[in-house]
Design a protein that fits this description.
By secondary structure, the protein is mainly alpha-helical. The chain has three domains: 60 residues, no CATH class; 96 residues, no CATH class; 61 residues, no CATH class. The chain has 15 helices and no strands. The longest helix is centred in the N-terminal third of the chain and has 25 residues. The radius of gyration is 28 Å and the shape is extended. One of its GO terms (molecular function) is protein dimerization activity. This is Zinc finger MYM-type protein 1.
Length: 283
Amino acid sequence: SRNFENVLNAAKLFVSWANNEFEKCSIDLVVEELLPTIRIPTKKNLNLNNVSTAPTSAISKFEYTVHNVAMDIVLSKLQQHFAKHSELSADFACLDPRNFSKELPVTAFVKLSKLLGFEKAVLKNELQDFASKWEKLKLKLPETYLVQDEDNEDDDEEEEITLNNENQQQKIEQCKEKKRCLNCLLCCYNVLFKYRLYVSAYNNLFIAYKYVLSLSCTQIGCERSFSTLTFIKTRLRNRLSMDNLDAWMLMNLNKDILESLSFEDITNEVVQQSSVLKSILVV
């Protein structure tokens, strides 16, 4: 379904929010909630059997001429984009835990096993066994990632009390961002990795999940990487070596990991690799 009613309700909520914001900021601007009514001339038709089905209201006209046309274009573009990889997309759907209750099709993992160099039957057996135990395995996985280890909570209790409200709110938001859904490909990968099930029981299945999660469904990540490359390797830095360029790219693309590292840890790591820096940095 095209869900035009949901789009219409969302548009009304946005208009209401925008008007409230304009009023708060004392901006003399009002967004109209209703579309302008345009008089559509109609021809008299004496043939009663031939009734015109053209939209009569502005909302109906917008639905047929704008919304439905846009949806058709989006669907056609998606079909063109994923038509070449329909077999691989079907294999990815089999790995989704929401489809564990369904029977595997006969053509499952034909393309994926060929790409990874696995036997199709082995990958099927591992997935079926893992799917039968998924309901119990996912319960052992914590619902959220912890910012600190549980063992260190008592030691850091006094420090947590001294945190201001802003830091506490930021810490709560970090926990919310890392909440697990327990019903996706990433959660399956985390279960296999946490309990080291990839060592013997689900070796091929673990590699399959890792392969799927490493793929980019769109070109956004690739385009973002090239944009970052143009910022780093400029006209004045055109003689950067590949090793240094790779290091700068990794640090720039993984800023969240880089910002989580402390300065002391970085200093200790550098000190261990150079005796000269050790004499300079270590007091």
